[in-house]
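protien #1 (seq + structre)
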Amino acid sequence: MNREEKNREIEALRADFSQANSALLVGFQGLTVEKDGQLRRELRKANLKYKVVKNTLAQRAAEGTPLEKVKDNFVGATAVALTKDDPVTMAKLLMRFAKENARFTFKAGIVEGRVIDVRDIEAIANLPTKEELISKLMFLINCQAQRLITALSGTARNLAFVIKQIGEKQGA
């Protein structure tokens, strides 16, 4: 790579790092091309970015971005998974892949702009996704509305029953 190509790569990485709300640095030493391709496809389906980076360029690109706090972790074979929106989905996918592939390791992480410990990645992966939380919230709202409707219709039903009994009693 000549100097111009390096500068273009640094600027492209800096743009990705600046836009990302959350990022996980991973090591992939010894991972097969087939497994790496499989991971890339899964991450692409989830709208996540995944890049294998050259450490010196990534360290320079991280300056002035949220990833500056973890730039010392760019050592060895390093890749970066980035997301703007959903760190939970990213953590779930990478954690599942790491459990299936022992050579895939976590180096560092940033979630919502804060540095997290590698052990916390599993805790994040166990959180419900945004869609699951919305579903649970909608269920709770709907459940309360159904209870209200049942209570209100019970009063009308009881009134109709009482009127019917009075009518039967007076008709007899």
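ok now protien #2
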Amino acid sequence: MSAFETLLQRVRACRSCAATLPHGPRPVLQACPEARILIASQAPGRRVHASGVPFADVSGDRLREWMGIDRQQFYDPTAVATLPMGFCFPGPGRAGALPPRPECAPQWRAALLERLPLVQLTLLVGAHAQRYHLATQPDSVTAAVRAWRDGWPAVVPLPHPSPRNRAWLVRNPWFGAEVLPQLRRRVAEVLQSNAEARR
């Protein structure tokens, strides 16, 4: 077993927050040292907690549509890594899920990220991932996404693809008109380079 596989085993066996998780611990992530795209998201929701599969919900359907890829490409760990800020479902809140548990990222994130040396594109999904990864702290998700060109072509901030954000998408039509076509082209470019490297 490789050092990376051992690390993944340790993450998946983590019970650090067990006492604070109303549905119990079930770390959900996808990672492989060969991955070229990193999705830095928030935390699994109730459906993902039940399935143990990242983005196996309506949010995932929309994210895959934004990226222009199918489920087979999305769930290929040699192409796409999914590392939420919190690996376990934090429980329901008043407006969706609670924030990711704060213990998770300091415990695991740096060790996992340093073992993903081939990542060419990082998608920062939602405020928690954006605050962690962006050097300049945005005032809001909208501000972060509006500044998407700042990190291009390596880093792209995105709103959360949850159906709860439908109103945001209506208020910000520039996202679909300007950001998504460029994002799809960049994702296709990175996946093509990944396929060529594996031949």
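The chain has one domain: 34-88+98-197.
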